[in-house]
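Posting for a labmate who doesn't have an account.
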Amino acid sequence: ATVEDKLGNRKTSERMDWNRRLAELPDFEFQRTYKLSKDAFARLCDRIRPRLVVDDRQAMRSSGSSISPELRLSMTLRYLAGGHYLDIMHLHQVKSHASFYKIIWHVVDVLIMELDDLAEFPIDDPAKLKTLSDGFYELSGQVVRGCVGALDGIAFKIHKPIQDDSMNPMAYWNRKGFFAIVCQAIRDADARFRWFTATAQGSCRDSTAWQMTALAGALKVAGLRLGCWIAADDAYGNSDYLLCPYPGRRLDIPEDSFNYFQSKCRITIERAFGILVA
């Protein structure tokens, strides 16, 4: 499509047709591209749509068309999934680097505001805790009772922070050899995130990053309902609400059996991280 500027001869590029893209991308490819199904993408977009309505006069001047909420979310999710910014800009016909990053961070801010409730673990909701426990009970072959989540951490690679962002950029240097932030997360038996936070510096070990979280603080004070517990690996340490495996090898049958079923519960968080970064 073309539009005329004041001289009547400026050509501009046509924005991506979102409906056409939906039709062209098979479901499995859409999932790989955006880390969401088509239905989940549509639900998310509808939820945040009111916050994505912005003044598009600059976009209209540069290309003759506005940037829809679907395209804004598409750009952001593709970028967060690891897409290169130049490829994303070309695909969505965004010409300005400044406009691209302005859109990305605006959508990220909106997602944080709108989805904040998803980062609350139901420590004081008996019905939700029972649902979580029932899921792990079935996952373990109806052996394990009381497990309401699987906890673990993952280091997300980042660029080296500049001095203006951090007084000690090297605090983000991870033992695996890159700059990172450490995410702590809890998943349910179906490998769905039930709680997460990503605020710790890359040099933090999982146990330290966990102790820094508001959820860990709340559990120290209030604990979990009697009989409920969260599965974690031995890096975290046992507590009134965390159960870790017995250390060592050649364990006696009771300890070895516990480790087997505890691992069966805990593996969901490792599988979830695998899905997230795949």
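Reply:
Got it, the structure tokens are right above this. DSSP finds eleven helices and five strands in the chain.
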